[in-house]
Structure formats: structure tokens, C-alpha cells
Amino acid sequence: MKKLFSYNHGWVLVIFFILSRGLVALAHIAMDDTALYRYWQYLDVFTLQHHLLRGVWYDHTQPPLFNLFLGVVLKTAGTNAPIAFQALFKIFTLANALLLLAILKKVTRHSYLPLLISLLYLLSPATIIFENELFYTSFITLLLLISVRNLLHLEDHITWRHTAGLFIPLVLVCLTRSMYHIVWLLVLSALIWIWHRKKSNARILLLGSLLSLLLTSSWYIKNYFIFHQFSTSTWMGMNMARNVFHDATVTDSSNIASIEPFSRISAYRHFLPPGYGRRYTGLNDRDLLHEWKNDSFINEKHVGYIEISRQYSAASKKTIRSHPAAYMMNVLQSAIIYFAPATRYPTTEYLSERMAWYDVVYSFNLSHFAHGKQQRRIALTLSAIPKFILYLLVFSWLIRETIRRKQVPGGLLTLFITCIIAYIFAVSSLFEHYENMRFRYEVEPLFLILLAICIIPILDIFLPHDRIKVQDLREYGK
Fold it and tell me: I need a labelling partner for 402 at 20 to 30 A (CA). Which of 90, 142, 237, 396 fits?
């Protein structure tokens, strides 16, 4: 904690947080706790309150952690759960900003750069919005930042404490969002092991990575034996279909693509074999066999979606083979959306309207001026340009310096973050549509770390005197 508040910059962040969130409250921006009832990812509230462990165990659509978190808060806070959620999510945001500050102070020798970049994140309209959405975005950011901070500590000494601090958050990320696949964890584990393999106590890292892979794979194995799916989510086929068939009109009623993905289960009755869900009767009927949850919302956890998603996957693959150019155009659209302002995220867009001018200036979100579908598409593309240019400049500089110096600026830290960003960009562009800006924002603080690494040489030229103690310097390639 002392390091987090070094040079009083931590307290500056706290003060800015309190003042800014006071203004946010005056703008009537607050958490809508009805998301607990509406969002597809969440179990029925009755299950969360009274049958939490059973509901989580028989959930084939989502990894277990966030539903466990929701259920624990509901059980412990009772009628005060909405207040508890709001408080916890504000703590997530402040913790993210303080962790980012601590990481940047370890990376850079310039005293005020960490504070400025941390404030850039803390005061972002997107940070404010996701802080007020009952979803796992800022929670995943927190886990990734904890992992990065421990990765930096491993540069000095490989210990069980920092190894656990590195891998446990990565495991929790995999058990929170299905997009973070076990293959993602395997690649990161291999990267870390290869980098440190010649150091003393490197066996600790090897053992830690193996344990993390074993723990993560246990949920995949559970789903394989119960639902015959080696994954943490059976929705991949439906997610893919949303991208493959975006803007396409399928009139053949015998083709499952004629139905919009994630429709209510009764809309697919002609695509489900008779008695399909009979084998799951008695396990968790409320979530696995009921069409609706919380009385009036579609229950996307119905066991029938396993078969439906499989058929969507088959239809998507067939369409990609027959019309690859059309699919690649949709992938291109998704890639553009990745760089769009995160305040453009559909579920929370209404919140950005309450601070529209701030969002325009801060995020260059031109969609506030758009009317109609075509105008909004043009505005979305234009709004993505600044972020795209910034990403292009940062990664171009990193590649150029790597080639020129024959070592990576920032070393393992840069490679670790780059792998995460590249993975999210690729997966979200190929399999998702219109949520990519939120996926990017989950790792925005990690990108800000890379931005700091790129800015350091410029500051070295203009502010060579602005340095901390020599023993705290960290050569970028070591």
C-alpha cells in the first residue's frame, strides 16, 4: 500500500476519484441493477439466492466465477445488494487506477508520467460507464493488472508469492469470461516460462503454470462429462453466427440462420429433436429447462441452446466456405468496431448520452451527432480513427525498436501485454460483432502501459532531469 501512495500520487488519484464521481452522480449516471435480471450471462435470481452452487455447477453457458460473485453478494447483502454492487464496482475502478499507477512507477523513471496516464484512465467516460454496469468488465481489468504487477516482481526474484500472484488472477480470468480460453492461458504460461527458464527457481514458474492449467481445465472436463462440450461456454456457435450472418437475410426456414441468434428457445422447436432435454430433468430445471427466467426475460441457459449453437456453428462454417469475402467484410467491420469509443457499447450507450459533450471531447465519439443507421455507421468508423492511429503508432514503434536494438522494449512485460491484446483483437473480430469496443477496454490499462514505454524515450530527450533513483531504473529489454 505504501508503494501505491508513493509521492502522494495515490492520494491525488483518490481525490480526483471522489470529485469526479460526485459530478457523475449529479449527472444522474448510476448503476442499473436490473441487469441482474436481464443479462443472458446470469442465472435466475432465485437460483443465485437459494441454489447458487447447483446453478453454477450445471451452467453450460458461462464460467462460474462471476455468477458466484453475484450470488455471494445477494446472499450476504440481502436487500442492500444494489448498494453493495455499486460500492464494489467503484472499489474495482479505484483499485485499477492505483494498480496502474504502481505498475507505471515501476516501469518508468519519470515521476509524473504514471500519474498523468492513471488519471487518463480514471477520468475516461468509458471507465465511468463500465463502473456503472453490473458486468465483469472492470473486474477482469483488475485481475489482469494484478497479474501484470506480479509479473514485474518476478523480474527481481522468482518466489511462490509472486508466482501465485501472477497465475491465480489469470486462472480467475479464464473462469470469469469464456473468451479467455485455456489455450490463451497455455500460450502465456509458455511465454513466461521460456523467458525465465534460465533463472534460479524457474521450476516454481513451471509448477505454477502447470497447476493453473490443471485448475482451469477442470471446468472444461466437468462440462465435457455433463454436457459433452469441452469448453466453458456452449454459445460459440451463436456468437459466430451473429458475425457471419450480420446484415444477411436468410429466408429459407429450413436453415437455422433464418432465425436471429439468441432468440427464445421455442423459436427453434423445429430444430430440436424430440425429448432433447429429458436427460437433464431434475438437475437444475429452473435454469436448464425453463424458457423464461425471472418471469419475463429469455433464459439463454436452456439446455436446448447446446444443440442450437452446434447447428449455428455448422451453418456458419458452411457460409464462410461458400462466401468467404462476405464473412471477411464482417470481420473487417468488427475490427473497426474494436477501435471505436467504448462508450458506444450498445448496452450502456444511454449512460454516455448523459455526458455527451464530455464523451465527444474525451473519446471522440461522433455517434452523438448521428441519426439513422447509415449515419451511425459512418460516425462509428470516423470515431475509431484516433484509437486506431494510436495503436498503430505504438506497435509500429515497438516493432521498429525491437528490430533496431535486437531486443524488445519493455522485455517480457511488452510481450505479455501484446499477446493479450492480439488475442482479444483476433477473437473478437472473428467471432463477435458489436461488442468489440468493450473487449478492448478490458485491457485498455495494459495498452496504456505500452504507451508509457513508448513515451519514455521522448521524455528522456526533453526532461532528462526528471528521474528517480538509479537503483530503480529498469532497462527496457532486460
Answer: 142
Question: DSSP 3-state assignment of 62?
Answer: coil
Q: Residue 415: what residue type?
A: L
Count of CB atoms within 10 A of residue 169's CB?
21
Question: Residue 418 and residue 411: Cα distance in Å, rounded?
Answer: 11
* 169: nearest Cα among 154, 147, 141, 139: 147
Name the amino acid, one letter, at 105. K
d(CA 94, CA 91): 5
- Which element (helix H / strand E) includes 293? strand 292-293
Distances (CA, A) of 468 to 33, 77, 154, 236, 398: 45, 45, 21, 48, 24
Please report how many Cα atoms fall inside a 13 Å half-sphere around the Cα of residue 24, on the Cβ side: 24
**Three-class SS state of 203:** helix
Is the pTM higher than 0.90? The answer reads yes
Q: pLDDT tens string for the chain (478 positions)?
A: 444 444 588 999 999 999 999 999 999 999 998 999 999 999 999 999 999 999 999 999 999 999 999 999 999 999 999 999 999 999 999 999 999 999 999 998 788 899 999 999 999 999 999 999 999 999 999 999 999 999 999 988 899 999 999 999 999 999 999 999 999 999 999 999 999 998 888 999 999 999 999 999 999 999 999 999 999 999 999 999 999 998 888 888 889 999 999 999 999 999 998 888 889 999 999 999 999 999 899 999 999 999 999 999 999 999 999 999 999 999 999 999 999 999 998 888 899 999 999 999 999 999 999 888 889 889 999 999 999 999 999 999 999 999 999 999 999 999 999 999 999 999 999 988 888 899 999 999 999 999 999 998 888 777 664 544 333 434 444 4
CA gap 222, 184 in Å, rounded: 19
Q: Which residue has the cell 444522474?
A: 28
Buried b (16+ CB within 10 A) or exposed e, 216-248: bbebbeebeeebebebbbbbbbbbbbbbbbbee
**24-44: buried (b, 16+ CB within 10 Å) or exposed (e) per residue?**
beeeebebeeebbeeeebbbb
